[in-house]
Amino acid sequence: MWPRHTDRAYPMASVIPLGRVSADAGALAGAKALNLAAMMRARLPVPDGFSVTAEAYRAHVSALRLGRPQRDCLAAIRELITASELATETAAEIRAAFRRLRTPLVAVRSSGTAEDLPGHSFAGLYDTYLRSTDADGCIGLVKQCWASLWTERAFDYRDKNGFEHAKAAMAVVVQQLVAADAAGVIFTADPVSGSANRIVIEACWGLGEALVSGKVTPDRLVIDRDTERVVERFVSTKSVETAFSPTGSPVEQTVPAARADKPSISDAIALKLARQALRAEKLFGSPQDIEWALAGPNLFLLQSRPITTLGKPPGRTVGAEAKSWEDRQVWSNTNSAEVLPGVLTPLVWSTVGEFIGDLLGSVIGRLGISFGDNPFIGEVAGRAYTNLNTFTGMVRRMPFASRMNQAQMFGGQNLKPEDRAKLELGADDLPDIKVSPLKTLLKLPGFLLWMSRHGPGRGREWIAASLDAYEKKPRPDLTRLSEQELSDKAIATLLQMRVGGEGLGYALGGMMFTSVLYDLCKRWFNDPTGINASRLLAGTGELRSAEAGIDLWRLGRLVADSPELRETVLPAGSWTDLRPRLEITEPGRDFLARWDRFLHLHGHHARGEMDMYNPRWREQPDYVLDVVRSFARAGDKADPEVDQRRHAEEREHLKVALMARLRNPVKRWVFDYVVRKAQLSASIRENVKDAAIRVFADTRALVVELGRRLAARGVFADADDIFFLRFPEIEPVVSETAGNDVRARVAERRAEHERNLALSPPAIIVGKYDPVKHKPDTVDASAELKGLAVSPGIVTGPARVILHAGTEQVVPGEILVAPFTDPGWTPYFIPAAGIVMDQGGLLSHGSIVAREYGIPAVVNVGPATKLIKTGQLIQVDGDTGRVRILK
Fold this sequence. Notes:
One of its GO terms (molecular function) is kinase activity. InterPro entries: ATP_grasp_subdomain_1, PEP-util_enz_mobile_dom, PEP_Utilizing_Enz, Phosphohistidine_dom_sf, PPDK_AMP/ATP-bd. This protein is an alpha+beta fold.
């Protein structure tokens, strides 16, 4: 079961100096040692060391008589490997080789004999140890490396890729450890785009562990291979580094502020490193991924392996074959995570994809463009991700849209360089969006006419008519409907969305005017951050979700202004207990009338309200009551309606001042026209979405009642099990033709839902999502964060970090820090002094509401909720997009 091998150059060898590892010793010393030895022979700068061979490993485990390796006994295997004594002769050889290194500082790394085969990379699967030790300590570290061959992750990787566990073996490389001033990796070809002409360097201060572990965003340089010039340079704020403690163990420490923003390597060192790396590439005959370290003026190459994830550059293949179409798909949640946050249930998935596809298809179809079978939205670990291949292919074929700054409008502008590089899609990466240039040209006049009929004036009329129709629609008693009627009505309600193309047309028209306004301010008034455009759009009114916040504030003021209501409403207690007490007094009945009106108008809202799984406000009266109580206690918060009137005056004064700077009368007319249209459009996108949310809320009510009925007759274990069926699966369950596996199907999907909740996929993913390959986005701690300025003004105050709406309240004067916001978060905006969001763009809900309320806001910050803590004093600069952590 644990076979032994010999190598003809070193029969039964246990320890070999690196310089003596021959080119045919791969099965004995492993790929890492083989490559290091080759670089040493080529006189490349490699730290001295030795290989503890795979034969030593086999001899060690053979003596343990482990039997057939099984996943459930991996911990026991690791314990046996590390606890058992090494053979006397092997231990003596390691001690002698260790003494020849003449340093206690060593790097002990795996050198697996199956490592980095074509198309596979074992990088990061096995343990590495960097520390000061003695000879016996070195033996212990070697055994720890061997044991890492039997972690669950390594075991699963071999299973997934078809490697036999019984043949798995590991050599170990022990090298002199470089006490690096800076370190990183260099790729002799761009691993993302596949361009062989781009040499990519990533660097950080200290040892490379801070980079590998994701604790710091590295500096990034790109060198043109032909000209040997640095053509791209990104310098990050590197607030932490890994260095050696006085005891010789690696420790994470803060980088002094004077050094944090400086380049970790100079251009001269980068060019020197590139030349050394190209020598290694020539030596091995393929593009290489090389770890390096810089100590003083001296460069060292620590290991080299082929780039196993090399992409396909436009127009040609790299390596033996091109990446598959699936592997070249680029997925992003930079906007979809705001609209559809979190892990979605199967019921929601079965409606959202079709709903979004139908809406967009109805618009681009007017230009003779069709997605065909290409996906626009997809599921990644249960979350909604946009397919950027399809999106880019569509945008490049649509008039006007190709000129719009999508990142600024919707989010994604603050991406790291490595993520931005993933978005550089070549022509070969774009799907065959079905379009005939002649057909599009012929349809263009009709499309422009259709867009002209979807101006902001008509948009407001359409929204008002939709709201009026909703108000007049009869509300049936759901408890009186049969299961079949509930199912049919839910489907019929959702079908209303199929005619939602009109609403999307009004939303697109409004977005176009907003985009043009920001562009004009940038071009005509030297306003790169868009502060003037944001001020011109502040407090324009008629935003339904903002009205929900104001109506809640009014309920709070009603309580605050009435001694009787204060005495009744403010003490702790549930809505169920409170309502009967309100019904017996005149002030109480007045409050109830306004309360009921509020829930009628706004009760369809919820956190993550596009997800029907989430309960609506009307289902959670205790949450709404807590918000009303917090507003009643706030007392000193200014009336938001007064703020809106003040913003209206400021808008008009700013518009007059800006128009006075335009000497050309045509420009003045154009600017005045665009401002008026953009101000009329400011609320339309959100109000169109509000109309859609009403439909989703009505559908949820039907589904919840149906789930309750099916649970009552034993079909489901719980009423909300219905959300773990897809919509087409509900009808067979109702008609009792679904078979007997419904509960098992639901249980399996619930388990998958729970597994997905534990995952943290990054914002940008290339290919099929793999939790091992696609690590969560790294967070670089910094005292200053940069995002997108969306609502002007500068404010300083304590932070209130809230990850889930409904869990806590914002105290007046606090700055709300949230991952995203939708109308379910609106109550937090009234008392907030400022807004900071991880995600978002100029047209995101939080941005629009912040401008409506006149609150300074910065969005698209990235890791704000991970770096800022509740209670910290922060400054939000809504003019420049900076967020500073003061203390």
